[in-house]
């Protein structure tokens, strides 16, 4: 199984939306902020200097992750990471993570920030494995479900 990590192409916006909606609905619910970002990913991520990557297996998009520029800083939020249910357990999320960290280093991004939920034990394990550390979570962040904030400084 050879997974290729590819950059954003407009033709994959539906995949970006569907992959993220699936996991949000299965574990939480889709917050208004999620819906806004996912329905308009070009406007809210790409056009603002962010990046979206996809995991492609054969001709299918099986995973995705985004780097969303954080307002007023040179830091990026690592967000909207999802892998299709049929392809979980094959380390596709880790391949996406490895790729996005390498990309951030080459672009000299100072920090990556992740908002998550402690319920996502496997995801938090992966974040820690890649060097993310927990930092204080501000009260007025974008996500109601967020109960942990992590950063990776380069």
UniProtKB/TrEMBL annotation:
GO molecular function, one term: N-acetyltransferase activity
Pfam families linked to this entry: Acetyltransf_1 (PF00583)
Top-level lineage group: Bacteria
Keywords carried by this UniProt record: Transferase
Residue intervals of the N-acetyltransferase domain: 3-154
The protein, known as: Transcriptional regulator
Organism of derivation: Algibacter lectus
